[in-house]
Amino acid sequence: MLRFDIITIFPEFFRGVFDFGIVRRARAAGLVEIAAHDLRGWTHDRHKVVDDRPFGGGDGMVLKPEPIFEAVESLTGTAGDARSLREAGKRVVLLSPQG
Fold it and tell me: Could you give the CA distance from residue 30 to residue 54 in angstroms, rounded to a whole number?
């Protein structure tokens, strides 16, 4: 079985997306398992903050690395470094805001 864990700050967005088309059929056949996780679950502050201002100023916000690393380590069961992931046969794909 192929497993996809999606770490996002908008897990509700993905809830219904995978209930249609070929992805739905693959899930029903037990070929694919997909889960959307809220990145805020790996924060430690009262307000569940996952973003910060970019260094050097500029427009927009950037995600803090700490919650991302904790999420990956928690979901993969590895130390999160490339060697541990490779040895476990797992991959991590980071997408840009453009996808």
Answer: 42
